[in-house]
Amino acid sequence: MDLRFRDAEPTAEERAAVDALLGEPETGWEGGARTEDDLRFAAAPAEERRDQLLPALHAVNDRVGWISEGALDYICRRLGVPPAEAYSVATFYSLLSVEPRPPRVLHVCTDLACQARGADKVRRDVEAQLGPAGTSWQPSPCLGVCERAPAALALQAGEHPTATVYGDADFSDPSSFDWISPEEDTPDVPGVFGDDPVRAAVPQAGDPRLVLLRRVGVVDPASLDDYRATGGYAALRRAFELGPGGVIREVLEAGLVGRGGAAFPTGRKWEATARQFDRPHYLVCNADESEPGTFKDRVVMEGDPYALVEAMTVAGYATGCARGYLYIRGEYPRATRRLEHAIATARARGLLGEDILGQGFAFDIEIRRGAGAYICGEETAIFNSIEGYRGEPRSKPPFPVEKGLFGKPTVVNNVETLVNVLPILEQGAAAYAAVGTGGSTGTKLFCVSGTVQRPGLYELPFGATLGDLLALAGGATGALRAVLLGGAAGAFVRGDELDIPLTFEGTRAAGATLGSGVILVLDDTVELPPFLLRIAEFFRDESCGQCVPCRVGTVRQEEALHRLTKRRSAGDLVLLREVGQAMRDASICGLGQTAWNAVESAIDRLGVFAEEAS
Amino acid sequence: MTVPLRPPRRLVEITVDGEAVRVPEGDTILDACAAAGKDIPTLCYGDTLTPKNACRVCVVEVEGARTLAPACSRKAEPGMVVGTETERARHSRKVVLELLASSVDMSTTPRAAEWIDEYGADPDRFGPDAATVAQPAKVDNELYVRDYSKCILCYKCVDACGDQWQNSFAIAVSGRGFDATISTEFDAPLTDSACVYCGNCVEVCPTGALSFKTEFDMRAAGTWNEDEQTQTTTICSYCGVGCNLTLHVQENRIVKVTSPHDNPVTHGNLCIKGRFGFQHVQNVGASADG
Ligand SMILES: Cc1cc2nc3c(=O)[nH]c(=O)nc-3n(C[C@H](O)[C@H](O)[C@H](O)COP(=O)(O)O)c2cc1C
Ligand code: SF4
Ligand code: SF4
Ligand code: SF4
Ligand code: FES
Ligand code: FES
């Protein structure tokens, strides 16, 4: 490969940002000072460092707010990546900009839960004060703080980049844009402002029946001592007693099923990975959480970060991984800081690293930040993103357990799935499986949002009905019209279907899905057609563009819904159905395959557009 | 030339539309369909490239699978039962053709019109306001033109330019979703990019989005006439490698150069001299600096 660059030079600031990540350049070819040696040895960068591409793009974007051509070229020289490829990666992610923009950008959530709670007004207020969207502010898909909808997130680039999270956002007063002073910084979450939500996010906080959420809002998330004093690291000790095979057996017997949306049995995935001869094995914790209406993983990570560190260590031990990647969405600054702190503390205390708890087991965790792309939560897209490529899903087969990250056997699990392993080991498989139903064991986190009295993250044993959950959350604020189960990729149920059991099998039997645990409540103040339009817009925006049914189908779906909101037409309903069927049948990945689910259920189950269709 | 001996591949038996077909292990459903004499439409598939399976026009129904499978890339597995003409498969192919033809100018895509007819696709059904990828053609060098209003985003040019053949990495997909396009870094003109004008991207482009400048200009002038063209395959005389060139000649002028994909050494790839050198011979003075 023969890299060719144009004449753009990085600024001192851009260069410093990249060097802070990658170290000083060693040779003139990488953009350092030229020496005689360089002329003798035309060396490309010594090692394969392509996987540092996204971190390097982040470094510049965090420092300057956008990525200039000079900065991109400098990154390419340092990493030996062709500029066209780096540009292709940079333009894939919505948090990165290759156009100049101010250092502070406000991301205003216009997604489902926020739309149900006044995002339109927030958007209008912001527009009135900051002008049209595009540079200083932009509309955003779900920011994962739906329990405090409407939400916004300000990201401020600089030497010490900061983030401000706005819950119950109200920008009608210009002073709401003012800076929050750095003195309000808290030590374990430097640079993250805005109200600390985690206790408020869990209305049941402190309830002794909680399992997964028992520490959230109760135990100091920064303190490893407090974590250990409240039962932390008992599961890892138990894992060492059982041995890797024993851990997998417990997880199998517990009947644990993935909580990331696909409901795949976790023990089988672990077993299949552990069995692979090819080495090394990798663990990827999927914390990309971008399904609209989902915020459970954020709450767990903000409120109990050591639990995830411990759970990943157990998973790594069981499946033979020495390295775990925690892929966390870029819009989660507080969870990221909390986990950085927890990982560093665990490492300093011998709970990560070469010889964990003196058991001769080596394992470490590296955090990788997403950069605004829902698709990167898909289990193969996440590999491409970590490896420094566009976050496009790969075709399966081969499956991740055979060829995953860097082409090696990889186990991918959701945050909530992983933290379930702790009670399984603490209580034993039998006790764990005694809770719930035959097909759905243990407890489940539910992200309750929308027009409901007490939105928040709830934990209930499997088997509770939708009605039970809504009662716990105080019911809808008005007359209940519908509930969106499972997020944008899920399905609507009617307000009179409250006895649906919230289990994998129960929701399936009802023609819906648990998905990622989204329970988005809509009362009669929420207009359904614009809500459906927002779902369609989400899929159109988030399609990676790889395959035709999804790339063009999501556009045609949105166009047809636009027309339908203005004028009912039987032809457009047929069109939606036909395009939807092709997206479901012929798309490469789950995004395209589910892009029509919610719209279909709204038409068939809620009767939207039915009345006047001719 | 010596051909390395490989152990004979085992045969796999699958059923295609009710008929038993045996193909060597590792072959795709598309290979099996070809063996059974079925004509499956393909667009993003390239005989010299790793399947990207992006267009989905080749989907078939595999019994027991939740979704349809791309014939061009899914390997035949023993006992597979494949339906190429089932209602589901035909429906998806029809809709894919509608989606493509309503958003992309397919006027120079070979066989597109035939397939649209065969599957009863109606690209106009999305109405006059349907979004398209229409944009001005990029004419930034003397050798070839990039008209992305004809691009179906099949990734073949990117793969040919990158690690699969040319290793120049001059172009890649930029943006996301419907806004994605093929582009150099910061959309720089080709003359500022890593392009070496091998034209191997033009060779694999299935839609005519990439075309010789000669062809582009003649089409614009209305003088392009494939029926009058002759094709002659010769050996390139610029260097000792001996690549095959297929010269497309109209009215005694070479109008474009392709290369046979079944050449065991070059697989249809050439360098700037073989691909575009004819212009130096023909139009003295018009040169490309690149
Ligand atoms: C478009 C798309 C987005 C996804 N996003 C996420 C996500 O953000 N988090 C997650 O855990 N799983 C997500 N998934 C599911 C993953 O592909 C995968 O099934 C999951 O991470 C496996 O973990 P589990 O078995 O523990 O659930 C997504 C799937 C698709 C198709
Ligand atoms: S279905 Fe959509 S997101 Fe998935 S690969 Fe295809 S275009 Fe990309
Ligand atoms: S002509 Fe060759 S080098 Fe240039 S873009 Fe096409 S394949 Fe790449
Ligand atoms: S330019 Fe041609 S080869 Fe390249 S992606 Fe578009 S259609 Fe495919
Ligand atoms: S934060 Fe707005 S919908 Fe989730
Ligand atoms: S030809 Fe098979 S997916 Fe395009």
UniProtKB/TrEMBL annotation, chain A:
Keywords per UniProt: 4Fe-4S, Iron, Iron-sulfur, Metal-binding
UniProt entry tagged with the keyword Iron-sulfur: yes
GO MF term set: 4 iron, 4 sulfur cluster binding; FMN binding; metal ion binding; NADH dehydrogenase (ubiquinone) activity
NADH-ubiquinone oxidoreductase 51kDa subunit iron-sulphur binding domain mapped to chain residues: 529-573
Xref: PROSITE patterns: COMPLEX1_51K_2
Matches recorded under InterPro entries: NADH-UbQ_OxRdtase_51kDa_CS (IPR001949), Nuo51_FMN-bd (IPR011538), Nuo51_FMN-bd_sf (IPR037225), NuoE_N (IPR041921), Nuop51_4Fe4S-bd (IPR019575), Nuop51_4Fe4S-bd_sf (IPR037207), Soluble_ligand-bd (IPR019554), Thioredoxin-like_sf (IPR036249)
Sections of the chain in a coiled coil: none
Family per record: Belongs to the complex I 51 kDa subunit family.
Name this protein carries in UniProt: NADH dehydrogenase subunit F
Organism: Acrocarpospora phusangensis
Gene name of the record: nuoF_2
From TrEMBL, chain B:
InterPro entries according to UniProt: 2Fe-2S_ferredoxin-like_sf, 2Fe-2S_ferredoxin-type, 4Fe4S_Fe-S-bd, 4Fe4S_Fe_S_CS, Mopterin_OxRdtase_4Fe-4S_dom, MopterinOxRdtase_cofactor_BS, PSI_iron-sulfur_center
Keywords: 4Fe-4S, Iron, Iron-sulfur, Metal-binding, Repeat
Superkingdom to which the source organism belongs: Bacteria
SMART domains: Molybdop_Fe4S4
SUPFAM superfamilies linked to this entry: 2Fe-2S ferredoxin-like (SSF54292), 4Fe-4S ferredoxins (SSF54862), Formate dehydrogenase/DMSO reductase, domains 1-3 (SSF53706)
Domain 4Fe-4S Mo/W bis-MGD-type: 229-285
Cited Pfam families: Fer2_4 (PF13510), Fer4_7 (PF12838), Molybdop_Fe4S4 (PF04879)
Coiled coil spans: none
Chain ranges of the 4Fe-4S ferredoxin-type domain: 141-161, 187-215
Domain 2Fe-2S ferredoxin-type: 10-88
Keyword check for Metal-binding: yes
Protein name: Respiratory chain oxidoreductase
